[in-house]
Amino acid sequence: MDNRIVKLLLVEDDEDDYILAMDYLQEIPDFTFEIKWLSDYQSIVEILQQESFDLCLLDYQLGAHTGLSVLEAAKAMGCDTPFIMLTGQVDEVLDAKALALGAEDFLVKSEINSVRFIRAIRYALARKELENERLERLRIESDSRAKDRFLAHLSHELRTPLTSIIGYTDLLLSRAELDAIKPELSIINSNSQHLLALLNEVLDLSKIRENSLSLNKDTFLLSPFLADLQSLFNMAAAKKGLSFKINSKERLPESIFSDSTRLKQVLINTIYNAIKFTESGQVSVDLRYQQQAEKGLLFFSVVDTGIGIPKDKLKRIFKPFEQVQEVTTRTEEGAGLGLAISASLIELLGGELKVESVLGVGSTFTFSIDTGLKRPNLVPLILAPPLAGQEKEASRPMKLNGQVLVVEDVPEIRTLLCNIISATGVTVTSVADGQQGLALLTGKQHHFDLVFMDLHMPVMGGRDVVVAARNQGLELPIVALTAAALKGSEETLQALGFNRVLTKPIDTAQLQACLAHFLHPQASVSSLASNNEQSGKSGKKILLVEDDDDARELMCMLLKSLGAEVYCAASIQSCLALYSQVDALDLVILDLMLPDGSGLDAATQIRAQNSEQNLAIISGYEPEPEQLVSLGIAHVLLKPVSLSDLSALLT
Ligand code: ADP
Predict the structure, then answer these.
(1) 3-class DSSP state for residue 569?
(2) Average pLDDT estimate for 612-638
(3) Structure confidence at residue 526 (pLDDT)
C-alpha cells in the first residue's frame, strides 16, 4: 500500500516531548508525516488562519495559553483542521471541554506509544476525508445547479429574440402585398427555425455531457410507436419519390420498457438523414429481436440507398459538429449534432450506434436497445400500409367550422394532427396528456365540438379520460386514436364511451371524413372571412406581462389580430397594478423571467386575489411541473410563441 502523506501541525512547547512525538509518528506504518512544529500561541493562530492541515496534535500546556484557547480560536475562525489534544494526565473535565470545542480526541501523553494513539490518528484522518468528500459532493451539486440555471437563462435569452424574429416574419409572410419579398422573408424564417433547432440540440448535448440527461422509461406498445413513425415520414419520402417502410421478418415484443421520446428522437434523426441523403430507391427500418440470457435486445437498422459516407469519415460523424460535406459546399441544413446526440442516447438506452456505408451505394445505421423486459410477449409486427393518394387528399381544401381538441403525447404526431385539422379551417387546441385534456373538457372555458384522443399517454391514458368525461355527463364526440394492431378492440373502446376509432398511421382522408362527419361546413371559405370570424369569436380581455419590448409588442399584435383586447405590462409591479384596475380578465399571460421577480411570483399573488383566474406562462424553458400544478396554471407556451399557439390559448 502506498504511504499516505499527512500534513501535520505539532503544537508542543517542550522540546523533549516534540522529539518523542516525532519518533513515534515516524514509526506509524502507512503514513509519512510532513511535520510543522510550533509552540507559541500567536504563530499557531496565524498559521491555522493561512493553511489547512490534515491533523493537529495539540499540547494542553502552552506557556501563558492552553490548548483550549487554541481550539477556541480555531473554532471561531471556522478552521477545518482536525485536532487531537495531548495532556500530561487524565482529566475528565478538560477532556469534555476539548471535545465541546471540536477536538476529535483527547489523549494522555503516556499513551503516545500505544495502539490507541495510532487509532486516534487514523480515525481523525478518516473523518476528515469523509468530510472532504461531502464538501466535494456539495460543490459538484452546486456547480451543476449553477450550470442548470445558466442553461435555463441562456435558453430563455435566446428564445425571447427568436420569438420576435420568427413571429414577425410569420406575420409578414401572411401579407399578400409583400409577395415580392417573400423569398427573402422565407430565408429569414427558415434560418431562425434552424437556430431554434440548434439551440435545442446544444441544450441536449450539454445535458448529455453533464450526465444530467435523465431518461423517462415506461412500458409502451411497440406497434403504435412504429406506426407513428411510419406516418410521420410517409410524406417526406413520397415527396422525394422514395419508398419508406418499417418492417420485421420476426416476431417482436408487444411492449418494451424504455424511454419512448428519446428512442423516437434517435429514429427520427437517422430516418430523416437517410431520406435527406438519398435521391432514389428506398429507406427502410428493419427490426430484429434477440433474447440474451436475462436480457432482451431490440435491434434497429435504418437502411438507405443514398450517397453513402467515405470510409475515412465513418468514425467522425458521431463527433459533434462533424459533417461529411464541406460546410461551404453543403446545401442541406443541419449542424452535425444529431448523430452525436443519437449515439449518446443509444448508449444511455443500453446499446451502441454503428454505421456501415458504401460510397454511392448507401448507408446502414444500426443500434440495439435493452428492451427492459426479461420475457416479453412476442407478436408479429402489424402496421397499416401507407395509404396511396394521401398527399392528394391532404391538399384538397375542405372548409369546416368548429373547435377541436387534440390530446396526444408525441409532439410530432400532435403537430401533424393539428396541421391536418387546422387546414380545414377548424380551430385546434392541443395538449400532451390525458390529465390536461380532461381539465380542459371539464373546465369552465370548455366549448369544444370534437376531441381526438390518443390512448397511450404518460399522464392519464385516453380510456381513463373518456370514462371520466362521460361520468361527468359530457356528451361531445370523442374519437380514439389507436394502432392498427389493436383494431379488434373497437367495440370495447366504443363501450367505454368513444364515438369512433381512428387507426394509426394517421390517414388524412379518414381524419378529414371524421371531421366532416362531426363538424359543420363553413359558410364562407375566404381566408379573410375566417380570420374575421376568429376575431369575432375571441373578444377576450387579456393581460400580457413580458419585459422584452419586441416580444411584448409582437405578442400584443398577434393577440389583437385574434380579436383580443390586450393590456400590457413589463414587470410584476405594473402587472399587479393593472390587474387591480381591469375587471374580468379572461386570461393573464406571464413571462417567467421579469425584472422584479419570476412570473410564478406574480401568479402566486394573482391566485391569492382570485382563485379562478385563468393563467398562462410563456417561457424559454420548461418550468417545474409541480409549481405549475400548485398554482393551477394549465398552459405553458415555450418561446418562440407563434400565432397558432396564441390562437389555441384563446379558444
Ligand atoms: P446533420 O444535422 O448535419 O445531419 P448529423 O449528426 O445527423 O448532423 O449527421 C452528420 C453528418 O453525417 C451529416 O452531415 C452527413 O454528412 C452524414 N450522414 C448522416 N447520415 C447519413 C446518411 N444516411 N447518408 C449519408 N451521409 C450521412
Answers:
(1) strand
(2) 85
(3) 33
Question: Tens digits of per-residue pLDDT, 509-530?
Answer: 678 888 888 887 764 333 333 3
Q: What is the DSSP-derived secondary structure letter of residue 633? A: -
* Cβ within 8 Å of residue 515, ≥6 positions away: 398, 400, 404, 421, 424, 426, 450
How far apart, in whole angstroms, are the C-alpha atoms of residue 461 and residue 409? 10
Report the residue among 305, 339, 355 best suited for mutation to probe ligand 1: largest number of ligand atoms under 8 A from its CB.
339
CA–CA dist 226, 247 (Å, integer): 9
User: Separation of 323 CA from ligand 1 center, angstroms?
Assistant: 6
The residue whose CA is least distant from atom 8 of ligand 1 is 336
Question: How many whole angstroms separate alpha carbon 387 and alpha carbon 395?
Answer: 14
Q: Tell me how crowded residue 331 is: count the other CB atoms within 10 A of its CB.
A: 5
Q: Report d(CA 76, CA 62) in Å as an integer.
A: 19
Cβ count within 10 A of residue 22: 14
pLDDT for residue 456 is more than 90: no
Mean pLDDT of all residues in the chain? 83
> Which protein residues are within 6 Å of ligand 1, measured from CB?
269, 273-274, 277, 304, 306-307, 309, 317, 323-325, 334-340, 363
CA of 274 to the centre of ligand 1 (A): 8
Contact 567, 574 (CB under 8 A): no
Q: In this predicted model, what pLDDT tens digit does every residue of 92-149 receive, in sequence order? A: 888 888 888 888 888 888 887 778 888 888 888 888 888 888 888 888 888 777 777 7
Å from CA of 533 to ligand 1 middle = 45
Question: What's the pLDDT at 462?
Answer: 93
Asked if 270 contacts 365 with a C-beta cutoff of 8 angstroms, the reply is yes
pLDDT at residue 322 greater than cutoff 70: no
| Helix/strand/coil percentages in the chain, nearest 5 | 50, 20, 30
Closest atom, ligand 1, to C-alpha of 269: 7
Ligand 1 site-directed mutation target among 268, 272, 273, 327, most atoms within 8 Å of CB: 273
Give mean pLDDT, residues 276-280: 93
Query: In terms of DSSP bridges, do strands 478-483 and 500-504 run parallel, antiparallel, or are they unpaired?
Result: parallel
What's the CA-to-centroid distance between 283 and ligand 1, angstroms?
Answer: 15
The residues, any chain, with a CB within 8 Å of residue 649's CB and separated by 6 or more, are 587, 589, 616, 635, 637
Q: Is the pTM of this model over 0.70?
A: no
Measured in angstroms, how far is the CA atom of residue 154 from the centroid of ligand 1?
A: 27
Cα first-last separation, the chain: 72
What pLDDT sits at residue 525?
32
Q: Retrieve residue 402's grid coordinates.
A: 368548429
Gap from CA of 194 to ligand 1 centroid (Å): 16
